[in-house]
Amino acid sequence: MPATxxxxxxxxxxxxxxKFLITLVxxxxxxxxxxxxxxxxxVLNKHFQHVLSLTKTQSxxxxxxxxxxxxVMGIPAGLFMKRFGYKNGVLLGLSLFAIGSFxxxxxxxxxxxxxxxxxxxxLGCGISTLETVxxxxxxxxxxxxxxxxxxxxxxxxxxxxxxxxxxxxxxFLLRNNTAGSTDLTSVKTLYIVIGSVIATIAxxxxxxxxxxxxxxxxVVDTDAANVDAEPGxxxxxxxxxxxxxxxQFFNVAAQGGTWAFFINYGHEKMGFSDATAGNYMVLFMxxxxxxxxxxxxxxxxxxxxxxLAIFAACNIxxxxxxxxxxxxxxxxxxxxxxxxxxxxxxxIFSLGLxxxxxxxQQASSFISMGVVGGAVFxxxxxxxxxxxxxxxxxxxxxxxxxxxxxxxxxxxxx
Length: 414
What we know:
Elements: H1 21-51, H2 56-59, H3 61-102, H4 104-110, H5 113-140, H6 147-174, H7 185-205, H8 239-260, H9 262-270, H10 274-298, H11 304-323, H12 328-341, H13 344-353, H14 360-369, H15 373-385, H16 396-410
Helix pairs in contact: 1-3, 1-5, 1-6, 3-5, 3-7, 3-14, 3-15, 4-5, 4-7, 5-6, 5-14, 6-10, 6-13, 8-13, 8-14, 8-15, 8-16, 9-10, 10-12, 11-12, 11-13, 11-16
Main location: membrane
Keywords: Cell membrane, Membrane, Transmembrane, Transmembrane helix
Domain Major facilitator superfamily (MFS) profile: 21-414
């Protein structure tokens, strides 16, 4: 797959190279599409509470199905990528994404939450494959010293997708919610459109010619290229990688729970209608987009691991304020949670992949598997939220404490 190239030890660290631009644009667009899919799941969570008469704990299975797929698909996706290359890995992810979307049609016809769970799981396998492939793919499209910036830039479009997802979901699914309604036509129509778009993207990407990438074994400059500085170590002997997997588990755990009950918080604590709370979720995701652009800029003057630790500490403060139910101050803190969350996923991913050389693709699989935290944590928060949704936001403090430790102490490649 990679071609041989020699790095210039004193070369300046550019964002990317002209030959990679088309590929970078295409792969970056994928971040937006899975952002739409994941946040649409948060709207489905609330919609299924209405039309399928589910409790908050039961509806958390939406997140379990999507994020649980990451645990199942992480290693197979990494092995597929290592055997068949980045491009074919992307095509596999898009195909599973489209198939899962189309399976919403028979699920809606049967009005079965179990069938929806199967469709969401297959869709989640597609998203998991895309994430496993796309992060090392983007990281490899240029100098390793700017890989943090490239991944955060690409993840900014993931945040854009996270804005579009709840906007579309609120308009088509929550806007016309009525008590006692069991109509799933809007769900079926919406996912037919999503599946068709993703299938089209897969066909178009199949025609993209990916330039040869750098062979890490032929590069002398270990700062510029992702070269294993200690090739005698196994993957799990690289402690910064192990901590990245742990940090990613807790990071996505916090994300899954926070996003899953955002609309519930707006409805129960602020008195908003579901549709209004869904509209605020668009702004909520907009703050994540802003945070990624701000974070990418700040990384020019603040080391990525230090910025990660600062943002994690800020989110601990935000969670404490949210749990107090202070009205608008708490709701603003809930909104800001996403601003500070913004850089965490891509920065943890990028820091965990540094200086792993030939282990990089396998490492990407395990870091992607850490996303299973998003399958577990919403259940825990849901159990607390059944009594008081505000108190549920004490739980993510544990997650942000782990992320703080990773950024402050355990993220450096040794």
